[in-house]
Amino acid sequence: MITPITPRAGRLRKRYMDTVPEIDAERALLVTASYQETAGEPFVIRRAKMLKKLVSEMTLRIEEDEIIVGNMAKNYRGCALFPETDLTFFFNELRDGSFDKRDTASEKFLISEETKQQALSVENYWKGRRLNDAVKGAMPDEVKDIMAGGVLTFFYPDMVYGTVGHHCGNFAKVINQGFKAIRADAQARMDAIAGNIEGEYATKYLFWKAVTIICDAAKIYANRYAALAREKAEMEKNPKQRELFLQIAAVCEWVPENPARTFREAVQATWFYQLLIQLDVNGPGVSMGRFDQYTYPLYAKQAKEGTITWDEALEIVEAMWIKISEVCKLKNIGYSRNAGGYSMGMHMVAGGQTKDGRDATNEVTYMMLRATRDLSVHEPPMDVRIWNGTPDKLWREAIETTKKVGGIPTFQNDNVIIPQMLARGFSIEEARDYLIIGCVEPGGSGNDFSCSGGTGTGSFINLPQCLVLAMNNGVNPKTGVQAGPPTGYFKDFETFAALQAAYEKQVKYFVDWYVTICNLWEVAARTILPLPVLSATIDGCVESGADVMFGGARHNGIGLAGVGIANIADGFAAVKKLVYDEKVYTREEFLAGMLANWENNEPMRQNIINNAPKYGNDDDYVDELARWCLSVYTNYTNSKKGVRCNFLAGLFPVSAHIGMGANTYATPDGRKKGLPLSDGISPSQGLDKNGPASILKSTSRIDQMSALNGTLLNMKFHPSSLQGENGIQKLKQLVQTYFDMGGMHIQYNVVTSDTLRAAQKNPEEYKDLVIRIAGFSAYFVQLYKELQDDLIRRTDLEA
């Protein structure tokens, strides 16, 4: 039963749930027109002018009952188009009719015939001008064979479906200073060098000029909403709705140009700023940071004055949650399935510590959890930061919320992440103020261009495939392509150490190529698609006169995520035990069985599955192998140099373990070709036999401190074992124990496989069922079947 705090919030939710997203070509038309008008100008100026034209001319909406306003497109739940990156897949789907055949699991969109023609009308202009064209031109010829190895993704040959994403804006600056002050700062720097621009100051001047244009755009955007609200108020006959329109107008006339004065203004400024970032670029995982920290001071001020109540503030938060849920962007079918349910990854963080080391929990923290629980929406994804001072009330509220709304919030360990941030060069105050980006990736608040998803198109490395290549002389058995270095055949490895050495060479070879591709990708992208909206606010950019893409932020990162941890651990353990230690099989027999996809070798396969040690069962034999395998990947990745900074190794799949598994041949753990890989740092689906404590012991043995880009541990509990007060205490103790052992992150679903099967059969009866997939949550019935099946295969644990 969904029980929003107010009838208004209930109506907002119903409209959202009842509306199928719709494609809108207006942004594509306006962006194309802007580029034609600014041809030949510096790209940083063109991008700023593009946004200004867009917010000056795009259709605005204010829906009935809305408290927080702002839309991405002219339709309700409208999906804007970004032709400057690449829409080839979309144009092809329009022409062959497959776009109209998309189902919910592939993120279905409505589209009118007029919109189709409008979208197709800009296609020719963008040929040769797209980010995808620039990236393709930057890639070495060898990339084709590298992609054929099945280790890296990148959606080759079209390696662009958006811009660089996985970052978070500086919301505190927008709320506390406003765009007027940001503009004045940039203008003052321009005035100081007017008529005497030397050396690098020519580039700085153009950047500062772009910042002033962005600030003007922010004012225009908000003031247009104010004018629309006043227009609606004049026509409105209902006194309550008229007053609401007038309130909206007053708020939008003030923020985000000026510092917010009230909690509502702070939330509205937050949303305007987030929309400006989203309208500018098509990056994934554009996160929203520590919402309870940057909005709370104004709530506290009003609460003390008696000008706002808890319920009034909560209604504002619930209205904001619906606005976040409404946003959607177009992806290709493969991407849509891997990040399903129209998920946007606008991650928020609650709790944790203040910059001076006190507990950061406040009333807005609880509003965030309550809003998610009341509305049962999967956006925004959310983490609760845990430390020694986390109050029992926050534990209780977080656990009750995640039990009801699958995997929201998840839990992050301050005792691991703060030292990681210090190791990256953050001050102790900055480290305590960390946030989470996209899925599980730590970043700095308002001072960090993290790019934790790499290019945003394919930030994953298939570690089990590295083991397969190590056993097959670098040849992908699925394609027959010599994709990795020739490290020999398993049948010739007389020692287990020889196999380990071959694996290490394969991992390092593909990490090197990942770094190569990302660095060339970023150089191509920053040249034609700088990020002036984000750069206007991130600490360090205006001061240095440099866009975030050019290293202007105070701190920088770029990430990579390893996939299939349990598969490599179990594969190494099977080989070591059954071939080298016990000599049950010869090397020739084992390799032949794997290369035959285990066909006609079912007894061998069952022996591997049932008798070789399995990661996730508190077995030192396999857990130490997992630790070694991952240290090879994390330590090497963390040593590699990016364009702006070092790379950061992570251990999470989003849901890429499904798609990567579909393209991965049989692996030495007994897995057959095409089946999903294991997710996150979790055990392989269904092979954890000794309960949750054993899973936590196994996963805590890997060096999570070296995973500077985050880890992800998924668990699924049977609801019967977590009922009542005793259930809350069980979950709290499990998380606390795991974090005390060095665990970094944990998330869980409290649902049975039987319930998920019933939802597959009768989706209309389970349309509100939210499930944690990997780095995001979604409505279960909106996921494609292979992903649903993968969730069902996870073990139903008894706490």
Question: Would you write up a description of this structure?
Answer:
The chain contains 33 helices and 18 strands. The strands form 7 sheets. The protein has a 5-stranded mixed sheet. Strands 11-13-14 form a 3-stranded parallel sheet. It is an alpha/beta fold and 799 residues long. It has a domain at 460-710. Strand 5, helix 17 and strand 6 (382-386) form a beta-alpha-beta unit. Helix content is 50%, strand content 8%. It is globular, with a radius of gyration of 26 Å.
Order of strands in the sheet with most strands:
5-6-7-16-15
Largest sheet: 5 strands, mixed
Helix content: 40-55%
Radius of gyration over alpha carbons? Answer: 26 Å
The DSSP helix count reads 33
Number of strand elements: 18
Give the overall shape, derived from the CA principal axes. globular
Instruction: List low-confidence stretches.
Output: none
Strand content: 5-15%
End-to-end separation in angstroms reads 25 Å
Structural category is alpha/beta
Average predicted confidence as pLDDT:
94
Strand-helix topology:
Layout: H1 7-18, E1 22-23, H2 26-37, H3 43-57, E2 78-79, H4 88-96, H5 113-121, H6 123-126, H7 131-138, H8 143-147, E3 167-168, H9 171-176, H10 178-193, H11 201-235, H12 239-254, H13 263-280, E4 286-287, H14 291-305, H15 310-326, H16 333-338, E5 348-351, H17 363-375, E6 382-386, H18 392-404, E7 410-413, H19 414-423, H20 428-432, E8 435-437, E9 441-443, E10 448-449, E11 460-462, H21 463-471, H22 496-528, H23 532-535, H24 541-544, E12 555-556, E13 558-563, H25 565-581, H26 587-595, H27 602-611, H28 620-639, E14 647-650, H29 656-662, H30 692-701, E15 714-717, H31 724-740, E16 745-750, H32 753-761, E17 770-772, E18 777-779, H33 785-793
Parallel strand pairs: 1-2, 3-4, 5-6, 6-7, 10-12, 11-13, 13-14, 15-16
Antiparallel strand pairs: 7-16, 8-9, 17-18
